[in-house]
From TrEMBL:
The keyword DNA-binding applies. GO terms for molecular function: DNA-binding transcription factor activity; transcription cis-regulatory region binding. InterPro entries: HTH_LacI, LacI/GalR-like_sensor, Lambda_DNA-bd_dom_sf, Peripla_BP_I. It comes from the Bacteria. This is Catabolite control protein A. Keywords: DNA-binding, Repressor, Transcription, Transcription regulation. PROSITE patterns: HTH_LACI_1, HTH_LACI_2. The lineage of its organism: Bacteria, Bacillati, Bacillota, Bacilli, Bacillales. Residues 2-56 form the HTH lacI-type domain.
Length: 325
């Protein structure tokens, strides 16, 4: 395997010059630069990325820890993070935690060993101490784990207001709210707080149904929604805190012989691509997923460069009305 010394010998330059070409540091003539690149290509030289990161004190790698990449929201978020990281010559190490704190700890240790420039954390576990003591740039999504660690969140409270107010305007008399487990200390719980406030102000009958701690268990969605349909047949409005839960609600109500939106109106949250693929198309509160991905990468890069960043980063939401309301 060729070394940097072999490249220097082949190009007729010093090892220092080869290093400066690879790291784009200092003035190097185009002639010399071409000699070095030609030598690297001829020798099939592959720079040692870990060694280079030690030299630069930056790896150009960002760690992304999410609960489940197969979930449409997190799949789309990962796609946006990778897109914007690549625009800044960075790569992404994707870690799929599956809500397992032990697995998450293994991933954190792995990211440390790879000297990533920072970690974007979208985890939903109850364990946060490992993140507080990372001593490297971090950004959390939809979770505030420390007053000094920056987080990104859409305006969950406003989103909850928009969804609930729409159902009330449409004449719903009894509204079901299906949400994740509120024991998880997530900023998305603000959607439920807004729901409670709006139905309370308007004196609307309501019922709240939570998932268990594994908020991504789709079999659980079927069970709790089927139970809701049969125990509360008078529900005529549903606000679900994700489009996936809303999609299961749509399926269960249609299975029960209810017509949407004539008998029951349904609103989801996130506005992932699947919302417009359903029949009828799903009304949803849109989170700005592209903006979240762009800002997450930006905050990691700015911290890595020694800049101070603001801890609270709240992004606006938008109600997208479609056929389910």
């Amino acid at each position: 395997m060729a070394t940097i010394h072999d490249v220097a010998l082949k190009a007729g330059v010093s090892v220092t010059t080869v290093s400066r070409v690879m790291n784009n540091r200092g003035y190097i003539s185009e002639t010399t630069r071409k000699k070095v690149f030609d030598a690297m290509e001829e020798l099939n030289y592959q720079p040692n990325e870990i060694a280079r990161s030690l030299l630069r004190k930056q790896s150009n790698i960002i760690g992304l820890i999410i609960p489940n990449v197969s979930h449409p929201f997190f799949g789309e978020l990962a796609n946006q993070v990778e897109y914007y990281a690549y625009q800044h010559d960075c790569k992404v190490l994707l870690c799929n935690s599956h809500m397992d704190p032990v697995k998450e700890k293994v991933y954190i240790d792995m990211l440390k060993r790879n000297r990533v420039d920072g970690i974007i954390m979208g985890s939903h576990t109850l364990e946060v101490e490992e993140y507080r003591h990372l001593n490297s740039p971090i950004v959390t999504f939809d979770r505030q784990i420390d007053p000094y660690i920056p987080y990104i969140s859409s305006d969950n409270y406003r989103g909850g207001e928009l969804a609930t107010e729409l159902l009330i305007r449409k004449g719903c008399q009894k509204i079901a709210h299906i949400c994740g487990n509120l024991e998880l200390n997530m900023l998305s719980n603000e959607r439920t707080k807004a729901f409670r406030d709006v139905v309370g102000r308007n004196g609307v009958e309501h019922v709240i149904v939570q998932t268990d701690l594994n908020v991504f268990d789709q079999k659980e969605y079927e069970r709790i929604i089927s139970k809701l349909v049969h125990e509360h047949p008078d529900v005529d409005g549903v606000f679900a805190t994700s489009d996936i839960i809303a999609a299961f609600a749509l399926k269960e109500y249609i299975r029960a012989g209810r017509h949407v939106p004539e008998n029951v109106r349904i609103v989801g949250f996130d506005d992932v691509s699947v919302a417009s693929w359903l029949t009828p198309e799903l009304t949803s509160v849109r989170q700005p997923i592209a903006d979240i991905g762009r800002l997450a990468v930006e905050l990691i890069r700015r911290q890595a460069e020694g800049e101070q960043v603001q801890p609270v980063n709240l992004l606006p939401v938008e109600l997208i009305e479609r056929a389910t309301t």
